[in-house]
Amino acid sequence: MRAKPIFGNPALVIEDALVISDLHIGIEYYLQKKGIHIPSQWREMAAAVKELKKESETKTLIINGDLKHGISAGKRELSDARHFIKEISGDFEKIYLVKGNHDGGIQDEIRHLLTIIPSSGFVYGGTGIFHGHAWPSEEVMKTDTLVIGHMHPSYEFLDSLGNSQKEPCWIRGKYKGKAVIVMPSMNRFYGGVAVNRGEFLGPLLKSDDFIPEEIILLDGTVVKKGLVGEKSPE
Ligand SMILES: [Fe+2]
């Protein structure tokens, strides 16, 4: 397998590149409006990325979409995204941002620090990488491994008293014979869809040709039952 998850983290390595997804920088401003006050997350995520870079000995960073949260972002959020990129830009030789559905309006001053890839994705180290809210390009579709973000998968555990707990997870599956890896979100405050309760997001994962095979928690726990709806493996 060309794409190797980093144990205990929502990140994987493809050749010399560290791949992360769905940072949703600025989500705290939207949570504030709902009465939930959490500290600014960009510093914590920048520190985590620096640690992952050291651990993985990578040179390149690929952000697989949704660097920031607001689809029409405010000033503070764009400023946080800019600070995040500036903070980590010295650690990597190159940073790619594959455009997610939340990445409109990335400021001009960040653009010179990033190589922006359209939402149809690109091929890196022989692996197809795209955010997942739109179909990938033909070039991406020619690869044998697809890495997707967008869904923020988690697995919901229920105990005998009915208490539930969501854990971020990876989804592994197949699409027309290709390996599919769905990445968890880098932002711990945006757990997203419980794969045993919700539905798949994005055209490729919603298609009948996508066959989910297993859920893997960040600690390596593998769950092979209870995937979304009728697509559960036998
Ligand atoms: Fe996202």
What report would you give on this structure?
This protein is of the alpha/beta class. The chain is built from 6 helices and 14 strands. The strands form 2 sheets. Strands 7, 8, 9, 10, 11, 12, 13 and 14 form an 8-stranded mixed β-sheet that branches. The chain has a 6-stranded mixed β-sheet with strand order 1-2-3-4-5-6, covered by helices on one side. β5, α4 (about 110) and β6 form a beta-alpha-beta unit. α2 (about 40-55) packs parallel to α3. The longest helix has 15 residues, at about 40-55. The protein starts with a strand and ends in an 11-residue tail after the last strand. Mean pLDDT is about 90; it is low at about 230-234. Bound molecules: fe (ii) ion (FE2). Fe (ii) ion (FE2) binds near residues 22, 66 and 100.
Gist?
By secondary structure, the chain is an alpha/beta fold. Helix content is 21%, strand content 28%.
How are the elements arranged and paired?
Blueprint: E1 3-5, E2 12-14, E3 17-20, H1 27-32, H2 42-56, E4 60-63, H3 75-89, E5 94-98, H4 108-111, E6 115-117, E7 122-124, E8 127-130, H5 138-141, E9 145-148, E10 154-158, E11 164-175, E12 178-182, H6 203-206, E13 210-217, E14 222-223
Parallel strand pairs: 3-4, 4-5, 5-6, 8-9, 9-12
Antiparallel strand pairs: 1-2, 2-3, 7-8, 10-11, 11-12, 11-13, 13-14
Helix pairs in contact: 2-3
The protein binds fe (ii) ion.
Fe (ii) ion binds next to loops.
